[in-house]
Amino acid sequence: MKLLTRNIDYAVRALLYIARSKKKVISVSELVEELNLPKPFLRSVLQTLHKRKVLKAYKGYGGGFSLALSPRKIYLGELIRIFKGNIRLNECIFKRKLCPNRNNCPLRRKIKEIENYVISKLKSTTISSLLD
Amino acid sequence: MKLLTRNIDYAVRALLYIARSKKKVISVSELVEELNLPKPFLRSVLQTLHKRKVLKAYKGYGGGFSLALSPRKIYLGELIRIFKGNIRLNECIFKRKLCPNRNNCPLRRKIKEIENYVISKLKSTTISSLLD
DNA sequence: GACAAATGATACTTATATGGTATCATTATA
DNA sequence: TATAATGATACCATATAAGTATCATTTGTC
C-alpha cells in the first residue's frame, strides 16, 4: 500500500532539483550526479514527464529538461496519476460479475471516504509547496 | 495503491457473513457457496485469521469457523496488518544510504500526514460498523 | 471401527507490477 | 563531423499477489 513508487519519488526529486536550480536546462547526467539515481531509469521517468507535458525537453549537445509548468501547477496527485493511473483505493475486485450490491457495499463506502481525503490532499500538494 | 488486497477483501466478506449468521459455526464450504469465492484461497485466508486469533476453528465433521472476537473488536486496520504488515505509506526508498535529510524531507512529511489520517480511519472501522 | 467432512500445514504455481537495463535512432551544438 | 544530449522501444529481474494441490489430523455419524 505504498502511495509512492520509485518513479514517482524520483520524479519529485528531479522536479525539485530543477525547480531550485538557477540554470534553465538540466541534463539527466547532472541529475544523476547530484541525486545519485540510476541513470537509465531516471531517463525513462523524465521522458514520461516530458510526454505528459510536465517537462520541456531539449535534445542535442547542452540539452536536457526544464519545467513546462510553474511549480505551483505541478500537483503530486497528477504525478501519481501519470505513473500509476487513477487513484482508486477502493476498486472492487468483482468487476461486473457477482457482488450485485456494489453500490451500497459498506466496505467500499468506507474506503471511498478515505480515498476522497487522500485525493484531496494529493491534489493540494504541489512541487512548489514541497520546495521550502 | 490499493488499500485492500483480495485476501483482506475475502476476509471481510467472510467475517461479515459469519457475524450475520445465526449459526455458530460456519464451514468454508458454506462460505464458498454463498460468497462465490475460490475455495483453497479462502481456506488459507481463514486459516491465517485463525492463527491470528480472529477466528475460532473447529475441526472434523460439522466443523468450521466462528468469530473469536466481538465484531466491535475486529478492526479493519488490524486485518490489513495481518495480511500486509504495518501500514506505511511513506516509507523512504533510501534506507540509511543517501538522503541525509530524511527527517525533514518535505515529501515524507506530507505523506506522513496522509498516512496518519488513513490509519486512524482504518483503526476506527470495525466489522460491526460495516454490518449495517 | 470405518467413512466422510471438516481444518492444519505446507509447498508449489501463475500472473502482474515494480524496478531497472540496453540499444538504436534522432537531434543539436561546438 | 564528433559528441552529448533526448526519443522510442524492447527487454530482463525480482517481488508481491493470487491461487492451487496435497497430505496429515481431527471429529461426528453410521
Kindly summarize this structure in a few lines.
2 copies of one chain form a homodimer. With 132 residues, chain A is mainly alpha-helical.
Q: What do these coordinates show?
A:
- The structure is a homodimer.
- Chain A is mostly helical and about 130 residues long.
- Chain A has a single domain, classed as Orthogonal Bundle (Arc Repressor Mutant, subunit A), CATH 1.10.10.10.
- Chain A is about 50% helix and about 5% strand.
- Chain A has a two-stranded antiparallel sheet with strand order 1-2.
- In chain A, a hairpin with a 5-residue loop joins strand 1 and strand 2.
- In chain A, helix 1 packs across helix 3 and helix 1 packs across helix 4.
- The longest helix of chain A has 19 residues.
- The structure holds a DNA duplex (30 and 30 nucleotides).
- Estimate the global geometry of chain A from the Cα principal axes: elongated
Low-confidence sequence ranges of chain A:
none
Biggest beta sheet attributes of chain A: 2 strands, antiparallel
Multimeric organization? homodimer
Radius of gyration of chain A: 18 Å
| CATH topology value of chain A | Arc Repressor Mutant, subunit A
Helix share, percent of chain A: 40-55%
Strands of the biggest beta sheet of chain A: in what spatial order? 1-2
Which homologous superfamily in CATH is the superfamily of chain A? Answer: Winged helix-like DNA-binding domain superfamily/Winged helix DNA-binding domain
Which architecture of chain A would the CATH scheme give at its second level? Orthogonal Bundle
Q: Tell how many strands the DSSP assignment of chain A holds.
A: 2
Largest interface: A-B, 34 and 34 residues
